[in-house]
Amino acid sequence: MQQTQFTKDHSGLDNAAENDDLDSGDEDVSIPKPDSAQELLRTLVEWLLVAVCALGLALLIRMFLIQAYYIPSSSMEDTLHKDDRVLVNKLSYRFGDIQRGDVIVFAKPDDALGDINDFIKRVVALPGETISFSNGQVLIDGETFDEPYVDRPSTFVNGRLMDCANEPASVDYCLVPEGTVFVMGDNREGSTDSRTFGPVEIDSIVGRAFIKLWPLGDIGFL
């Protein structure tokens, strides 16, 4: 039997490849450069978006998470001095309870005088506790309360304590109503606090001051 052999002709493919090479070499494809004004405009728009996002994030943090406050008076000495800066955690009491000794920022009570809108004081007595004063010392439920942050423990009261749960009002005894805390400044002789305007509503508390941010040489947790 006679076999027929077939030989594959690659000449057409080779010619096509050669033509492709020739075509790609002959055509000069150039990418147009962007206009300098358009490039500048695009850059400005991108930076504007970055700035808007950063500002929005900062506002969200300040509104819901952390805010810086400055100390307007000497009422918290020697823990905090006038013009010190602190950071306040606004979520602190959403996930935990108020503790005695916490340094808190709260809205100005209705009975407080002055132009300052936010006060910073230390929580001394909690809801349902009794706070009393004897020989300059603070007593909680009749027990002497140790306050290492007070430099001169000479606590005094001018007049009857306001808005307490006990009746009649007393000059040296307060039953702290539910939903409130009794606050005082560490500088007992130079602080306007619950001894003057009564216990503070928990709902008025902005948050807990947890770190001193300024001056730089005195940075630390509270």
Structure description:
With 222 residues, the protein is of the alpha+beta class. Strands 1, 2, 3, 4, 9, 10, 11 and 12 form an eight-stranded antiparallel sheet that branches. The chain has a four-stranded antiparallel sheet with strand order 7-6-5-8, with no helix packed on it. It has helices at residues 11-26, 36-64, 194-197, and strands at 66-70, 85-89, 103-107, 118-125, 130-134, 137-140, 143-144, 173-175, 180-184, 200-201, 205-214, 220-221. 22% of the residues are buried. A hairpin with a 5-residue loop joins strand 11 and strand 12. The chain is built from three helices and twelve strands. The radius of gyration is 36 Å and the shape is elongated.
Helical residues, percent: 10-25%
Return the string of H and E elements.
Answer: HHEEEEEEEEEHEEE
Report low-confidence residues grouped into runs of 5 or more: 1-26
Rounded mean pLDDT is: 82
Radius of gyration: 36 Å
- What is the 3D form? elongated
Largest sheet: 8 strands, antiparallel
* Alpha-beta classification: alpha+beta
Strand content: 25-35%
Q: State the helix count.
A: 3
Number of strands: 12
What is the end-to-end distance? 106 Å
Q: How are the secondary structure elements laid out?
A:
Blueprint: H1 11-26, H2 36-64, E1 66-70, E2 85-89, E3 103-107, E4 118-125, E5 130-134, E6 137-140, E7 143-144, E8 173-175, E9 180-184, H3 194-197, E10 200-201, E11 205-214, E12 220-221
Antiparallel strand pairs: 1-2, 2-11, 3-4, 3-11, 4-9, 5-6, 5-8, 6-7, 9-10, 11-12
Keyword list:
222 residues, alpha+beta, eight-stranded antiparallel β-sheet, four-stranded antiparallel β-sheet, 3 helices, 12 strands, 25% strand, elongated
